[in-house]
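Here is a complete protein record:
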Amino acid sequence: MNLFAEMEDAIKAVLRSMPELAEADMARVIVEPPRDPSHGDMATNAAMVLAKAAGVNPRELAEKICPALLDFEQVAEADIAGPGFINIRLQPASWHSLVPAILQAGADYGVGQAQDETINVEYVSANPTGPMHVGHARGAVFGDALARLLERAGYAVTREYYINDAGAQVDVLARSALLRMREALGEAIGDIPEGLYPGDYLVPVGQALAQTHGAALLDAPEAEQLTAGKAVALPMMMEMIRDDLATLGVRHDVFVSEQALHDDGSVEAVFGELAARDLIYRGVLEPPKGKQPPPDWEASEQDLFRAAQFGDDSDRALKKSDGSWTYFAPDIAYHKNKYDRGFARMIDVWGADHIGYIKRMQAAVSAVTQGQGDLQVRACNLVKLMRDGEPVKMSKRAGSFITLREVVDEVGKDVVRFIMLTRKNDAPLDFDFSLVKEKSRDNPVFYVQYAHARICSVLRNAQQAGFAADALTDTALTNAVFSHLQDGAEMNLLRQLAAYPRMLASAATSCEPHRVAFYLQDLAALFHALWNSGKERPELRFIQEEKPELTLARLGLLRATAIVLACGLDVIGVEPEVELR
């Protein structure tokens, strides 16, 4: 049940019944909560966006629409505001009917209709050179929550991880592992040389290398040593990454290797395809004016992709003057690979340091899919770890940063996930260990989970007060008389529950899972306000032993609230609390 969608359909039906609007495009007509709740329950821009098609001014069109809306039994009032906006107030029964609808739908409340589209969401994709750090945690949570959100909106979603297992950083990993191998064989290695990875997490890798190859490997040519180091280190690093992500409740369906794209000829093939379409030429790129040249810039002739032809700021190098690939070339092959696997719509979740890379990648996708592929990129800004207002910088395990696992071990998966979504993905985020452990309103995850726990406590108290357990099931509570819900605080809670399906759909369209966390905080605040009202006004207490019908109506409202809290928390991968802490 989506009251906003139902009202939008009703308004569009009224509009189509008008001869002058029978063929008009209704795509821009929306129904939403008014900015000022005192103006009504819903507002629509219908007259504003269709006045031109109707050949009248917006207010004249609104004057024709309003009387027709009153023919719908759920509408109590329809008024014109300003130049032609229409404010709508619903009959109380419309809000009351929401509770049994939520109780019947359960976890399916707000879920969208199945869409004929599969979306590829790629997130994390960190270099397989060490454990996940807290910056990866934000992208991991955002990507996983976005995938969950899109599934609620009705899309089929494939969660993907791109393994950057080719290039200089993997050679550094192999050399670091070989150093640890010498240590495992009894050699005193001293301080880790600058340029190698210093973390203790590589000690087991060195031990595995020593056990697999023994000291004989150290006498082999360097290329053979590096190959052996990669063969042992990369699988162990990916196993570590999967384990780290699992502690956060994050999973992927598909892992794609960059090295495999080189090995199977995909990079060469996509280069050849672009060349055949005259999208590759030999040239020298101009250095960026007033900026530090990017890593792929050089003053010699290179093979350049006509990226500017597809919306980028300039053309881009694919192959260097020495014949080696730039890092851009395999990325193009990878996205072509996605498209060839059936993903016309792709969403990549990147770190903020890759924002400047977005235009060129979107240009490449447009080129290799001949305009049929759609790449959206969501960048996650930095996370600053704090403790009592002071920065937290070092990790015993990683040697230079705080690992994801260390954060999860200290505060728990649910806290990390929720806090990572308390800011829009492209805004910086402060994560204060002290604050997120507080049991107060200032801690949003506690505040939301506590609302669910309080509702569970009220339902248990109702049984202790003599209400039979079988009368408190979701099925039984649908038969309560919800017209007893009349107080303003109860109606506010109902309005917020009604907004959930619309919020989910809007958040999925905009790829903004933080909206779910914001919504849950607002819903929890309204519930806690209703709870506190009962302390000051006994007639508002949930359990009224002498008024069983009123009690059951209120318990139905609470149970519907608990369902929506649990559903919203599930979208962002957080467990609801069932016991008061």
Notes: The longest strand covers residues 156-163. The chain has 21 helices and 15 strands. The radius of gyration is 29 Å.
